[in-house]
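From the shared-data thread, chain only:
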Amino acid sequence: MRTAIVACGALEPHLKNIAGRNEIDLTIFPLPAILHNSPRKIAREVDSTLESIKGNFDLCAVAYADCGTYGELDLVLKKHGVARLGGNHCYDVFAGKTEIAKIMESEAGTYFLTDFLARTFYQSVVVELGLDRHPHLRDDYFKNYRKVIWLSQSPTDELKELAETAAKIIELPLEIIFVGETNLEREILSLLQR
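Structure, as tokens:
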């Protein structure tokens, strides 16, 4: 069976790991992770990609949560008869919706990092928000946050250092929660069995 998944580029390495562990012949169509800085573009890009691969695969799925599209992505998926990951964002996917809800109930001012975001923080946050040129904007962007939680999938010393650097840049304490790929793997396998 020829299987395709249109995915957020941040999830591509995890999808490769999952496909390898489960011996799935999976073709991944990664979209640029930077789309998260303009989430209204996600649905359009997913739609375009699904259109371009239509008829070439027995099964297609989408490795995005809602990701700030406010239901626009679901409209595209309904049109194509394709399912996506559950939840509002990848934090729900990695840690589980219940765990994220508990964290947010405890401290609504939580800024989350994934491995990808820890690795790319300087470019995707500092540069994209202009903090490299206007560091005084830090307070405008992050004044309502109280802590950073790194939802670690595959921890390394290098990633830990990058997560610590990200937290220092936005002047917040860092907490680390190991989540691995278990929840993501469960959801991906569920999508690919539909």
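The CA atoms of residues 62 and 84 lie 5 Å apart.
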